[in-house]
Design brief:
Layout lengths: L1 H10 L1 H8 L17 E5 L2 E5 L16 H37 L3 H23 L4 H15 L3 H8 L2 H12 L15 H16 L13 H13 L5 H40 L1
Antiparallel strand pairs: 1-2
Helix pairs in contact: 1-4, 1-5, 2-3, 2-4, 2-6, 3-4, 3-5, 3-8, 6-7, 8-9
């Protein structure tokens, strides 16, 4: 069920965005200008000044908490998995908006929107079904980062508010909030996501794409420092024990599921051998 909700949200991005962006936006273009070089004289020698692009200097997070370090590494693995979907969704929206602006008739716009929907669905449905619940949560946050709209808002634009209400409540059963916004300034998990992205962009292991919303990474870093400084002394022991319990239950559940599959397959083989 959760994967269906995520798939529907991503597939409907094109139509939702098309309804919100049906007129082209013209941005001002700066004209080329010739700047007079600046020179500095040092010990009788003239040196020209060059203005460099701004560079963000990132210092690796130093965790005092072992559990938070583990949490960060898990988020890192999941972000690297789902980022391509969020990035491509934003690219599809931009291209859809550009293409729709060039179409004159409403019927042509509807036809093109359906083509994009089918393309996204055929290309990503199989892969999106493989996402876990936590990966789906991160994807929804990244979709907001890259499109500026929550999944609930996108669904509401394409469907009625009543339909969006039911989607929201169905998602809540699986710990997915379709109204979730990306807030790395105040939400620790979102800050981890942003830190992962910036570092992966820097290493060029993920392809960078500018966000559609504004936020201050360094405000998030300040909040994280305060969060780490105020963790209780027994935080790691409690969290790691809980994590071990959850993992044990998960492995036991998977073992039972695998055993059921094995028995079912064995029964099929026996019936086939008797025919």
């Amino acid at each position: 069920m959760i994967n269906k909700i995520i798939i529907i949200g991503l597939v409907l991005l094109g139509s939702a965005f098309a309804k919100a962006q049906t007129t082209p936006t013209t941005l001002p273009i700066e004209s080329d200008t010739i700047q007079t070089p600046q020179y500095f004289f040092i010990d009788g020698d003239s040196l020209s000044a060059i203005e460099l692009d701004r560079v963000m200097l990132l210092q690796s997070l130093k965790f005092d908490s072992r559990y938070e370090n583990i949490r960060y590494q898990i988020i890192k693995r999941k972000v690297k998995k789902v980022w391509p979907y969020a990035k491509l969704a934003a690219e599809r929206l931009t291209e859809l908006d550009r293409r729709l602006a060039s179409l004159e008739y409403e019927s042509d716009k509807k036809k093109y929107t359906k083509i994009v929907q089918r393309y996204v669905e055929e290309e990503f449905t199989a892969e999106l079904k493989k996402l876990t619940t936590t990966e789906g949560q991160i994807l929804i946050k990244l979709l907001h980062r890259q499109t500026g709209m929550t999944t609930f808002e996108l669904l509401k634009q394409l469907r009625s508010g009543w339909s969006a209400f039911w989607f929201k409540n169905a998602a809540s059963l699986f710990d997915i909030d379709l109204k979730a916004e990306y807030s790395p300034e105040t939400n620790i998990e979102d800050f981890y996501i942003e830190d992962v992205l910036l570092n992966e962009f820097k290493k060029e292991t993920l392809e960078e794409q500018a966000p559609a919303i504004d936020y201050d990474y360094f405000k998030g870093r300040t909040a994280w420092n305060e969060y780490e400084d105020n963790l209780p002394k027994d935080y790691d022991s409690i969290q790691l024990a809980e994590r071990a319990r959850i993992r044990k239950e998960y492995l036991e559940k998977k073992a039972k599921e695998n055993e059921k599959k094995r028995r079912k397959l064995e029964r099929k083989r026996r019936r086939a051998s008797k025919q």
